[in-house]
Design a protein that fits this description.
Blueprint: H1 5-29, E1 50-57, E2 62-68, E3 71-75, E4 79-84, E5 94-96, E6 104-106, E7 126-128, H2 130-133, E8 144-146, E9 151-153, E10 172-177, E11 181-186, E12 194-200, H3 210-236, E13 242-245, E14 251-259, E15 264-270, E16 273-277, E17 281-285, E18 293-294, E19 304-308, E20 314-318, H4 320-323, E21 338-339, E22 353-357, E23 362-367, E24 375-381
Parallel strand pairs: 1-4, 3-12, 8-10, 14-17, 16-24
Antiparallel strand pairs: 1-2, 2-15, 4-10, 5-9, 6-7, 7-20, 11-12, 13-14, 14-15, 17-22, 18-21, 18-23, 19-20, 23-24
The chain binds copper (II) ion.
Copper (II) ion binds next to loops.
Length: 385
């Protein structure tokens, strides 16, 4: 028996029953059944709208890394504008049907091959990929159209306090959609950070208006903000996460660099202020991208050292003092640069753990140049000696 049979029978019944009913009604009232009028008017097309999506959320060091709403249904003809909405992490909006671009590339002419972040294979310098850093549309004020193919990029939206010097601040990006379809997009800084625009025909009635979109956005932000809020409570307690026995009566302390799931991370050190004794060791752990940098008595090296290229475009050269380990395995003697190198997932040069044994007393401030504002202090005492 055809699996379609029951459906066909039901469909046939659905057609026959109303016909019989209308005939019966006509017979009762003594009238003849009139043919249903043909629809004359074309389906109504709605005027194009301007709709808003939030890029990230969170104040200060709360990095809530998602688009809000994550999925948006619009009509063909609508324009969507993404607004930067966080002080936590930089983001971007990329629509592409091509292989994703690497966010970090070797500086042209400095040798090639290998992962530029490792400084290996002859490549000594790396920079932010200008195809990610800068908008794909060089014409300010004009709006591109996305129909599912090509490459469209907002450029990196930095939170104001993180914006590298010499770079124009991008905090908004608009894109028009005129063809129905399902269009996923991604953030060039976080590959897990993705969104979807669903474009319905221009005649679609049941698409949300902005007030409904805002409601959904707030609802999606709420649980993530709850995570970063509770992490703030833990962080402000300066609670020691772990203290273990080290060699010769010393202690080994664990500090977490950042905490929380990828989409709701607090970019702080846990604890932010740690007091230890001379000879103790601190181990920083991080599954996210962070770098632990000390430079007592000197300036902290910035993440980017902007330079103009041959055609006068400012390129964000990445500071190897931040991304490559400096004096790894050496004891901390209270002067000069110490760097973990970039830590975190994807087997970054700094790995996922970094340790320093403190040989001198003092108060030593350190920070993560990837996230200006993410700072900690190690206070080294004499152990009552
Ligand atoms: Cu992102």
């Amino acid at each position: 028996m055809s699996p379609l049979r029951p459906w066909r029978e039901a469909a046939a019944a659905a057609v026959i029953i109303p016909v019989l009913l209308s005939l019966a009604l006509a017979a009762c009232s003594g009238q003849t059944a009139e043919p249903t009028p043909e629809p004359t008017a074309a389906p109504e097309t709605f005027p194009p709208r301007e709709l808003k999506v939030l890029v990230g959320a969170g104040e200060r060091t709360a990095a809530v890394n998602a688009f809000f709403p994550q999925r948006l249904r619009v009509r063909a003809g609508d324009t969507v504008t993404w607004n930067m909405n966080t002080e936590g992490d930089p983001h971007s909006v990329i629509f592409t049907d091509q292989r994703p671009e690497d966010d970090v590339i070797p500086v042209p002419g400095t040798g090639g091959g290998g992962d530029p972040l490792y400084g290996g294979a002859g490549s000594q310098a790396s920079m932010l990929n200008p195809k990610i850093l800068y908008p794909s549309n060089p014409e300010e004020g004009s709006v591109e159209v996305w129909r599912g193919s090509g490459y469209v990029n907002s450029g990196i939206m930095f939170p104001k306090i993180q914006a590298p010097p010499g770079l124009p601040l991008i905090d908004t990006f608009s894109l028009k959609f005129d063809r129905p379809g399902v269009y996923p997009y991604v953030c060039g800084m976080h590959d897990f950070h993705q969104g979807v625009i669903v474009v319905e025909p221009a005649t679609a009635r049941d698409v949300p208006e902005q007030d409904e979109i805002d409601r959904v956005a707030l609802k999606e932000i709420e649980p993530l903000k709850e995570i970063t809020d509770s992490l703030y409570v833990l962080q402000s307690s300066d609670r020691v996460l772990d203290q273990e026995f080290g060699p010769g009566g010393t202690s080994v302390y664990v500090v977490a660099a950042g905490m929380g799931p990828p989409e709701a991370e607090l970019t702080e050190f846990f604890p932010g202020n740690l007091t230890i004794d001379k000879g103790d060791t601190v181990v920083w752990v991080s599954s996210r991208w962070h770098s632990i940098v000390f430079n007592p008595g000197g300036p902290f090296p910035p993440m980017y050292t902007p330079q103009e290229d041959d055609v006068g475009t400012v390129q964000m050269i990445i500071n190897p003092l931040v991304t490559l380990p400096v004096r790894a395995g050496q004891p901390f003697v209270g002067e000069g640069v110490y760097s973990s190198g970039l830590m975190g997932y994807g087997q970054r040069p700094g790995g996922v753990g970094y340790s320093l044994t403190f040989e001198v007393e003092g108060v030593f401030r350190y920070l993560c140049p990837v996230h200006p504002g993410m700072a900690g202090t190690i206070t080294v005492g004499d152990g009552g000696a």
